[in-house]
Structure formats: structure tokens, C-alpha cells
Amino acid sequence: MVRLVSDARILARALADPAGVGGLDAEGWTALLAMARAEQLVGTLAIRVDGLPMPVAVKAILADARAAAEHGRRAALWEAEMARRALAAVDCPIILLKGTAFVAAGLSAGQGRSIGDLDILVPRESIDAVEAALLAAGWEWVKPDPYDDAYYRRWMHELPPLIHRERDRMIDVHHTILPLTARITPDAAALIAGSFTLENGLRTLSPNGMLIHAAAHLFADGDLAGGLRNLWDIRCLIEEFGTDGLDMEAKRHGLSREVARSLRLVDALFAEGTARGADRLYIRRITARDGWGRPTRPITRLGFYVRSHLLRMPPAMLARHLWTKWRKA
Amino acid sequence: MRHAFSVRIGPVGFRIGSDWRAPIAELESLYRDYPKPRDGIPDFTVRLFARRPWRRFVRPSVEIGGDYMLPEAAPLPLRQGLLAAEMAMNLQMALGARRYLLLHASAVERDGRALLMTGISGAGKSTLATLLAAKGWRFMGDEFALLDPATGLIHAFPRLISLKNDAIAAAEAAWPQARMGPLMPATPKGDIRHMVPDSRAIAAMDTLATPALLLFPRYGFDAEARPVPPAEAFVRMTQASTNYVALGEAGFGALTGLIAGVPSVAIDYPDGASAIKQVEALWSAL
Amino acid sequence: MSGTIFWGPPDNGLLIAPLDEFTAVYHRASGITHLLTEPAPQILAVLGEGPVLLDALLARLAQDFDLTDGTREALAARLDELVEAGLVERT
Q1: Where are the alpha helices (DSSP H) in chain A?
Q2: Cis? peptide before A123, omega within 30° of 0
Q3: A304 belongs to a structural domain
Q4: Phi-psi map region of B39: left, alpha, beta (phi>0 left; psi -120 to 50 alpha)
Q5: Which of C31, C85, C86 sits opposite A71 (nearest CB)?
Q6: Out of A78, A85, A138, whose CB is closest to C31?
Q7: For chain C, which chains pass the contact test of at least 3 CB pairs under 8 Å?
């Protein structure tokens, strides 16, 4: 009996080559939809297979997914607009990041995308003024824990999380794209200087900036949860803008290795490339999802979680941080 | 997953996977007369799982999961596995349903027109729907009524009827022949027992109805009826709907249309018989 | 404050459903439903025609909608509420 591959590679293939879904039976579609939902990619899948022949039940489910993505897009753009209004008096560039940036700029990476909280990047010297303006306009702190707060302010690349008291939506305010304690220190000022301005005055990173941010976020900042969606973002950015000058800019921010790896992984997952060496472990982690939407490969998964913490903090600090957290728990 | 079951209830198809056989066996039995999901593809996936492999056997407790999950949801003991499955289906609907505006209401139908009954837990929605169905109304659902934004019509969603505490005896008295699930004493919500809707309700689950009356019942008071002002009805219905916000414009149109087109009445009632009399009086006055 | 200009959503930016003394208003840009009472719906109706100064708004409300019990201060307070709700912007 042949052991069939049943992980999120079928989702990656469906996104990359939509025509292939024509061969799916009911069980195949059911598995694909469960994986897509678990990976926050069902809206994207709906856009990619739109118009192809499919069972009526699938058509209805994907229409719902598109409607949900559209609703999320509207809510995300509104949060950006309310942040813009609140920060109008603060004289500094406000740069949208991630999903909100993609939809604000009408990029292909934004089509069908599920969007979470609002993430913005501001110059470090403006962070106090931005914080004050947001608090005055109805945002409040999510977690009032003094230790976490001190840790956040000193070492993280963002303010502690804020939530709007009426709308119940969170905003993350960054002043660089990686924590200060990480071994890699991107040039935030250069990212801001290279930003593009939208019609309403808000900004996005340049295309290379967005690519570098996505790669940094995927490898240096996270435990690869949501990795497939992140890599799809990167794939869309490459399709739309190419990679001119990407190498040089990545080097400038100390992220050459991460950017190169994400390009290889995009090639392996969504094109004809073959993963080799350590890349194969990343692929295993990123595709660790079964046809019921469950996360699989627990050992690979744990390995990445520990690694992501190591990347964020030097080992001595990590020990102290975890010890203090444990003592307080 | 090791054990699985699929079922269609009204316009919604579910797939339920479980680490244990028992809840699936109960679902198979109670939903035996229901159809399967359209095209064999369910709208939602539900998972009943053990957090650690050994918890399948040692003090087995059922975690609830699926396409949509709540991270802090508390697990249930295996003997309440059927309840876990029903709660999990509710959760998928509450967090993921987009095609219809979900009204937290029971619904019964007569002559193509629907009576919707809404209110907090314990107000009597399930019991009233069960009692009215025993008097010849067609049962459409006890937990959610599905309002179609495109047409303004109500779709039936006749899940197992979830009866709590005193309602169990009342329903058993009204429907002595009904098939029932196991009695689950002392759940987080009190004693619970599930009742299978009657065969007419199951056979007619795809027949739609025009909403005609919106009732806000309150159990345990002297009989009384008063009209509910439109704004109050509107606000109470948005609070009672888990997906009003997610539906955006379509939700706004559907709900304001319902409130504008259908009388809203609050009734207090001391017992089931009195409630039925009040309902019949209001219905014939329409 | 006297030089402040107020403006609201564009003409088709709101869906309006009068209920009783409350009006349900769906704000398309935000997806938020507001329940408003007099004079908020009337304010939005005037702003729907274009940006306006505070005194001009006060006069229009009295003239078009017979809302004559308003003072500048009260109107300014109502406008503050609408600004916080995201329905109105000001310079």
C-alpha cells in the first residue's frame, strides 16, 4: 500500500498551480479546505481557484471565505484610518506593516488574505509621542504587568500591546523589525527612509523592504507558526516586484541568510525547486498539518519553538527571563 | 482521526472526528435519519481530541476543536462526549457561519410562516419550541434560526434539542415517543438531555419559512404581553447574534428588514400551557 | 474652535434605518453599526452635503430640522462624540 503524502504540501501545490484541484474528490477537497483554514489561507485559496470547475458545496464555502476576507480587509483599513487620525498631530512617518500594508497598497499579496492586528513602524525617537497620542484617542494597555512592561520597553522592538477600548482591536507599534536583543540588527532608519507613501499619507515599506521584513519575521522573530502564509506573501511579492537589489539591501540589514533561505523555500514549495539540507527541516515544519487541520510533527515543532526564543535573546538573558516568568506564575 | 461521522442539518454540513468511539456511536444513532453533507463535503470540521495521548485512557477528557477554536475552552469528561460534540458544532457556527445571519432563537413554522423565540438561556426557547411542535407546529430549530440576507427567509436548522433541568421532563411528557440521548447530570449547565426532533421536522428541514412574529419570552411570571419597541428589539437581536458584525452590510439589511417587517412582542408566562395560549392569540391577531 | 471645519462620510457612505426615536446607522467604511438619537442623524444628514463650520451647522439644524434648543457648546459636545465614533472628522 503506497503511503500518500498528506501534509500541507497539497495546499502549497493548490495555491501554486490551481488547475490541479480539478482532480480532487470529495475527501480531497475536505482535507484541502481544513488545511487551508488551519493555515489562515482559505481566502487566498478561494481567489486562486476562482472560476475553476468545482463541486457546488465547495463553491459556496469558498464564496464565504472571500466574503470573510473582504470583511477583514475593510476592518483592517479602518483601523489604519483611525490610527492615522489619532496620529495626525504627531509629525512622523507612519508605516503600515504586513497584511494591512498589502491591502492598503492593493498588492496581490493582499488578495484574500486574512489580517490580524494592525502593525505599524515609527521612528524610535517618535515612539513616546505616538504612545501618548494613541492613549489619548481611546487605546489602552492590554497587560498591566510591570515586569513584562519593562522587558518590552527595553528589549523588544515594539510597545507593549495596545487595544482600542470601543472597537476592541489591537495595535502593535514597532520601532524596528526585530527585537533589540536579537543578534541581527536591521537598519530601521533606512527602512523608514525607503518607504512609499500612499494617497492618505500613511506609508508602506518599499517592495524589497516588505520582502526583507517578511523573511525576518518568519525566521528570526517567530517559531514558524503561520509559515506557509508568510512564504506565500513572499512569493506574491516576488511575482509582483522581482528581486532587483534585494541581495544588497538584505546584506545591509544583516538578513542575507534569512532572505536567501526564504527565496529557496518559496521555490521549493511553490515552484520546481528541491529543498536540500537544513531547508528540508524547515519544509517539514512549515507543512506540518494533516487533513483534519491538526498540527503534526511535534518534535520538529518543539525544536523550532526553543530556537525562536534563542534567536530573540542571548542565552543568559533567556534563562533569567524564563526564571522570572516561572517564579511569577 | 480514528472515528468519524458526517451529517447535514438544514443547509449546514458537519464532519466530526473523535479520538473515542463512544461520542461517534451516539451521534450515529441519534442523527441516523439525517442526510449527509452536500457533495460529500462538509461546511465545518469538528474534532474531539485528547490533549495528550495517554488522556485517551486515563481520566479521559474531551477537548473541543475544529476549524474554529477557542483557546481557553475547558474539556469535558468522556461521558459527556455527545455534549462536547454539540457544543463544538455550535462553536463552528458561532465563529464561522457567514451565509446566514445567525439568530440565537428557536423557530417553529405554520402555513409557511415562522415564529421566532429568542432570549437568554433558561428563558424557555427550547421548551416552547418543543411544546408547540407537539401541538402541530413544524419544528425548525431550538438553538439557531438562520436568516438568509438575500431573501429574508428563515432556514431550518433542526439539531438535537438541548433540554436542561426541568425542561427535560416537560419535553418527555409532550413527546413520549421521542428518541432521547443519554441523561447527563451535573454538567456545567445543569442536567442535560438531548431529544431527536420528530420525523416531520427532519423531513422538512429544507423547507423555508417567512418570519412572521418575533417573541421575547420570559418564564416564571404571570401571563402578560407587551410590544417591544423596534430599537430595543434591534439591539437585543444584535446581542443575540454571533455573526451580525461579520456579515457587515448584509447583516444590517437583514436585521433591520426583520425588525421592520415583523412585530416584536415580549411575553411573560407562568407555564407551558399558558405560553401556548398566548402564542396562539398573538398569531391569530397577525 | 470657531474656525474648525467638520465633515462626514460621503453620500453613499452610510446605510440608514430609522427604528423609533433611535436610528440604526451602518458606517460602510468601518463596518460598524451605530445606534443614534437626535440630533446625530440630522447632523450626519447636513454633513453629507459637504464640510461645514460649527455655526453654520447650528443654523442648518434649526432651519431644516427645527432643532432650536441647541447651544454651541451642546452641539460641540455631540460632534465630539461623533468624532470619537469615527463618523465625523474635523480640521
Answers
A1: 9-16, 26-38, 42-49, 56-86, 98-104, 127-136, 146-155, 188-193, 207-215, 227-241, 246-252, 256-270, 278-286, 298-312, 315-328
A2: no
A3: yes
A4: left
A5: C31
A6: A78
A7: A, B
**How many domains, in total, are found in chain A?**
1
Task: Give CA–CA dist A60/B109, Å, rounded.
Answer: 27
Is the Cβ of B239 closer than 8 Å to some Cβ of chain C? no
Residue A3 lies in a domain: no
Show the domain range for A290: 9-328
Question: In chain C, what are the domains?
Answer: 7-90 (3.90.930)
pLDDT at B3: 96
Category of A283 on φ-ψ map: left (φ > 0), alpha (ψ -120 to 50) or beta: alpha
Q: Residue B151 has which C-alpha cell?
A: 431573501
CATH of the domain at A22: 3.30.460.40
Q: Kindly determine whether residue C29 and residue A78, on different chains, have CB atoms separated by under 8 Å.
A: yes
Residues B146-163: tens digit of each pLDDT: 999 999 999 999 999 999
Percent of chain A past pLDDT 70, that is, above it, reads 83
Distance from CA of B45 to the nearest CA of A (A): 7
**Rounded CA separation A208/B95 (Å):** 36
Q: Which chains border A (3 or more CB–CB pairs < 8 Å)?
A: B, C
CA-nearest residue to B231 within chain C is C19
Closest by Cα among A2, A45, A47, A3 to A24: A45
| Interface residue B245 vs chain C (CB under 8 A) | yes
Asked if residue A293 is part of any domain, the answer here is yes
- Judge: C29–A75 Cβ closer than 8 Å, yes or no: no
CA distance A129 to A289: 43
What's the grid cell of residue C12?
453613499
CA B217, CA B206: separation in Å to the nearest integer? 27
Q: Which residues of A touch C30 (CB under 8 A)?
A: 74-75, 78
Whether residue A176 contacts residue A124, with contact meaning beta carbons closer than 8 Å, is answered with yes
Quote the cell numbers at residue A220.
528570526
Q: How many CA atoms lie within 13 A of B114 on its CB side?
A: 27
Give the residues of chain B that fall short of pLDDT 70: 122-123
DSSP secondary structure letter of residue A253 = T
C19, pLDDT greater than 90: yes
Tens digit of each residue's pLDDT (9 = 90 or more) over A139-174: 998 877 655 666 666 666 678 889 999 898 999 999
Confidence tier at A302 by pLDDT (50, 70, 90): low
Nearest chain A CA: its distance from B113 CA (Å): 26
What does the pLDDT average to over A33-60? Answer: 97
Kindly report the backbone phi and psi dihedral angles of residue A174, in degrees, each rounded to the nearest multiple of 5, phi listed first. Answer: -105, 150
Is residue A84 assigned to a domain?
yes
Please say whether the beta carbons of C90 and C15 come within 8 A.
Answer: no
Provide the pLDDT for residue B141.
96
Neighbours of A169 (CB within 10 A): 18
Inter-chain contact B245–C31, Cβ cutoff 8 Å?
Answer: yes
Average pLDDT, chain A: 87
Instruction: Say if residue A2's pLDDT is above 60.
Output: no
Pairing of strands B210-219, B264-269: parallel
Interatomic CA distance for residues A59 and A51, integer angstroms = 9
Q: List domains and CATH numbers for chain B.
A: 3-96 (no CATH), 101-284 (3.40.50)
Of the candidates A74, A77, A82, which has its C-beta nearest C86's C-beta?
A: A82
Average pLDDT of the residues in A273-279: 91
pLDDT at A1: 38
CA distance linking residue B200 with residue B108, whole number of Å: 12
